[in-house]
Amino acid sequence: xxxxxxxxxxxxxxxxxxxxxxxxxxxxxxxxxxxxxxxxxxxxxxxxxxxxxxxxxxxxxxxxxxxxxxxxxxxxxxxxxxxxxxxxxxxxxxxxxxxxxxxxxxxxxxxxxxxxxxxxxxxxxxxxxxxxxxxxxxxxxxxxxxxxxxxxxxxxxxxxxxxxxxxxxxxxxxxxxxxxxxxxxxxxxxxxxxxxxxxxxxxxxxxxxxxxxxxxxxxxxxxxxxxxxxxxxxxxxxxxxxxxxxxxxxxxxxxxxxxxxxxxxxxxxxxxxxxxxxxxxxxxxxxxxxxxxxxxxxxxxxxxxxxxxxxxxxxxxxxxxxxxxxxxxxxxxxxxxxxxxxxxxxxxxxxxxxxxxxxxxxxxxxxxxxxxxxxxxxxxxxxxxxxxxxxxxxxxxxxxxxxxxxxxxxxxxxxxxxxxxxxxxxxxxxxxxxxxxxxxxxxxxxxxxxxxxxxxxxxxxxxxxxxxxxxxxxxxxxxxxx
Length: 482
What we know:
By secondary structure, the chain is an all-alpha fold.
């Protein structure tokens, strides 16, 4: 099968090319996710946590567990399965990421109506609408980036994108601290102003995104024809063959079924669940029981350190072409943090444990997504597989909304205990998955060596090559990233 040759670029030219792509794509999608994440109710909604401090529960009479129930029944987690599974094949087939993703952001302007809710049913109604809209944003961008960056440049970019959520934890605490002084302006309480100002910023970013985003490398007019070919062909040979097989469009159903029946999708979904429940749970035992202003400010340092650690781990993960050691290390950090917080330690020690909880949970998140994205071949299989993984993981977000109950303050033994349990499950599931990857890679190495020892030719007929390509990541030439 003839394929276009890859243009030759010097290291300096290649570095400039990727820098141009980064500057075109990363700032806008990072801002999109930051604004989305600052709103999320059951998905690490730090702003809502601060809004809870700024009078939301008092004015709307959210007694008992009404606040938690409103979040779990109306957040994006309730709509993850349809939202994610519909969004990713759409992106994979229609190639309109520059319309789909900014369109989600326009829909998120509904959050402005959060500033005017006055009753519990109104709160739930608005959260339902927001949940429907925002369910496809994260998986859409995570998949979108796989179409632009090679597998060992992917995680750092995903970390830049995901890091905006970590920064949202720091920024929203500062923002809520400042907006708290607007309490009473215009006849609105401080928590109303939080959602109004967020909604205005969301609309602005959505329209900018529609102007500057590009669907995929092959349609990027800001690149020269040679640069477009280089970016497309820069994908690893096995991944490129999987994605570009000429019969692929006729095997969409085959790829979707392959995603649902692939053991690694479900294995990594377990790992993802073990990361997400503790990650979301950290929001619900923050702030720390001090005054509103002090609590908001105390949430800032852990998220700043988490962002730095996230980017550092992701950089070396790409550089060393390894994923699992960094995921495992991050999970261990989170485990130590939760163990500290479940004890009756002094508040200062628990604050240190909170640093570890946030750093470990946020750092492991993009590693798990990247590992599965690297190991799924075929455009549609990768899209659906990532959707399943993220959806399964986010079930932990729905659970986290209700395991940190007000009656368990201040130690939250139930919530911390479940977080420790899920992290431990992940620390067992990840090595089993990696050992299986290594065993399959070794089997394929031996099969290729055996073929060579028998004098078989490396070349195959075009029909045989196409059929081999349509095995996607199960092709003999494919090697799993570990």
